[in-house]
User: Fold this.
Amino acid sequence: MRIDIITVVPGLLESPFQYSIVARAIKKGLVEIHVHDLREYGLGSRKTVDDYSYGGDAGMVMMVEPVFNLIRDLKAERDYDEVIYMAPDGEILDQGIANELSLKENIIILCGHYKGIDERIREHLITREISVGDFVVSGGEIPAAILADSIVRLIPGALTDETSALSDSFQDGLVAPPVYTRPAEFNGWKVPEVLLSGNPKLIQAWQDEQALQRTKERRPGLLDDSFIKNFNK
Assistant:
C-alpha cells in the first residue's frame, strides 16, 4: 500500500510515522508513506500556496493551482483509489471507514491549512472527504496522521498479533471490554475471577457482556434495538 500526504507543514508529520506500528509496517515494506511539501509547487519566487479569499472573508485560502499540479504529477506515476481531503465537515472517521481504506492500494491525503482550500479542489480533485470529529484544529496534518495510523495497523502483518485488531473497539460495533494483566491483585484491587478461571467459554461470555454494557453506558449511539435483541437471544 502507498499513502501520499500533501501538506504545507511537512514537519508536523515527521514523528507520527517514525515509531510504533506504522514505523514497523514501513520497515517491513507493507506500506509506503510519502509526505509532499506543497510549497515545492508554490507559485512565483516566493512559492506562494495561499491567497486572500474572494468576498473578503478573514483568513487565507489554499490555492487550486499548486494542489492541482502536485496531484497531477502523482497521478502520472500511478493510479489512486482515493484522493481524500481532511475536512471538518467530511464524513466522520469510524472503524468501518478504516477497514475499507485498508484494502486500497494507493491513497492521496490532502491536508488543509489556513482558512481552508479553494472549493474547486473539492469539486474536481477530491473523491472523499473525512473528518476526525466535530471540532477544528490548526490544520489537517494531525487528522491525516490519525487516518493513516488507523489504516496501516489493519494491513496484514502490521501487528505482531494480527488477531489483536479483531478485538479492537468498534470492530464488532461495540467498545472493547476491560483488560487486565499481572499481578492478579495490587493494592487490594483484584482481577475478576472469571479471567483467572482458564475457561474460554466463560471468559468470552464475560467479555461480551462487559463490551455490551460499556457500549450502553459510554457510546449508546452505536447500538440500535435490533442489535440488542439479537445480542440477547
User: Anything to note?
Assistant: The chain has seven helices and ten strands. The two ends are 41 Å apart (CA to CA). The beta strands are 2-7, 32-37, 50-52, 60-62, 82-92, 106-111, 116-117, 128-131, 185-186, 189-190.
